[in-house]
Specification:
single chain, 80 residues, mainly alpha, 2 domains, 4 helices, elongated
Length: 80
């Protein structure tokens, strides 16, 4: 199924944020390789001051923060 140009970027970003790989998002949306490369580059681009990874907040890499969260009962997904 080919995706309408107007919705392709939003649909691609939503699939990627939902955990789909770049290849899976491309296949599900029926995107040509060139368009997929452009959308992936846009998805990976970070606005100034927004960090380097859209899928993982900065504090999630901070060992002391994770230890403090676990000490307070933690999140079920952060079990050691």
């Amino acid at each position: 199924m080919a995706m309408h140009e107007t919705w392709a970027g939003e649909a691609y970003a939503n699939l990627r944020r939902g955990g789909a790989s770049a290849g899976r998002a491309t296949t599900e949306l029926g995107l040509p390789p060139g368009k997929a490369r452009v959308l992936e580059a846009l998805f990976q681009a970070r606005p100034p001051g927004r960090g380097a990874d859209a899928m993982r907040p900065r504090f999630a890499r901070h060992g002391a923060h994770v230890a403090a969260v676990l000490a307070e009962g933690g999140y079920p997904a952060l079990t050691p």
